[in-house]
Amino acid sequence: KTSIALLMALKFAQGKPLHGNLTMKSRVLYLCGENPEDVRLRFERMLQEEQISPADIGDSVCFTRRPFAIDSATQRQSFIDDVSAFGRFDVCVIDTGHAHSDAEEENDNRAMHDLGQCMRDLGSAIGNPCILALMHPVKDAPRDRLLPRGGSAFGGTIDGVLCVWHEDGVSELFAHSSKFRGRQFDPLRFTLKNVDHPTLKDNFGFPANTVIAVPEQAQSIVEQRMTEAAELFTLKQEVLEFVRRVIDEGSFVVKGQHPAARHIYSKTHREHTHYPKSLQGNQDMTRKRKLAVSAIESLEAEGLLVHEEQWVKGRKDQRSRDGLKLAYWIPNRRESDESDCPF
Fold first, then answer.
1. Nearest in space to 243 (alpha carbons), one of 335, 159, 167, 320
2. Percent of the chain that is helix, strand, coil (3-state, to 5)
3. ∠43-12-135 over CA atoms, to 5°?
4. Quick one: 331 exposed, middle or buried, by C-beta within 10 A (0-12, 13-18, 19+)?
5. Is 32 helix (H, G, I), strand (E, B) or coil?
6. Residue pair 218/304 in contact by the 8 Å Cβ criterion
7. Model confidence over 264-308: pLDDT tens digits?
């Protein structure tokens, strides 16, 4: 989170695009809460990597030396009095929210709600900047459920949630699917690069090492999209083959909120022989589930697969409830209405 936030601060200060997205030249106030010295070291090393002189940045990015409790009225006002001498700011990064709070428990809904309100009070006193608060996610949260600790109490005080997911050496920044009131954007991909400081040494004389975020190269993005397109094409063929096999060998009903995807996804860990090999196993299931959804939607858009909803009566002997079933058909292969639903 810190590496990407520092890169964002630099691009905002320069008014230069961030991963192809336009920015406005802004003054940034960076509140360092967990390791102020490391944060400034990372920013200094990032300037060297970008071949930018600190004089070119000037006071466009200002760092604090120590944390303070934003949710303490006394400490907040004292900070406001001190920072007022530096003028107004357009962006304020809080790294992290918990490090700038007196709350003993991050999951205390009331305390986190108060923290969110106090962040707004701080912003109104320093120029009404855009506030980017780095928060810890809920424990063991999957990619599609990344939310800051504090539950809906904290979420209700903010305008949106940006998520960072690190996997296979790449960190992806994206907007939460439902907790984001701004304009949606394509995920931004970064790699974390270990770099040595050219002049700063540790006690043993070795260069001080730190980590900075580097936007993934455009060529890598193109290659990734080509790979995803190839995977989608392959999966579409496997889904069609799967449906044909089910029609030929037997019949069952797909239940779920989305056509086929929920059923395919829920069964993959069982290594069922009917299911496409690319969907078997339990690794990277979130991505594969989304890919399955895309495959089904693409096949339907091309008219290669159709579905209809039917109301079915539950059976007590099978402990099933009344509800809708999704019946899938391949055009020109639909069996007679007397037979069971093919897919």
1. 335
2. 40, 25, 35
3. 70
4. exposed
5. strand
6. no
7. 444 433 333 334 444 444 445 555 566 666 777 777 777 777 766
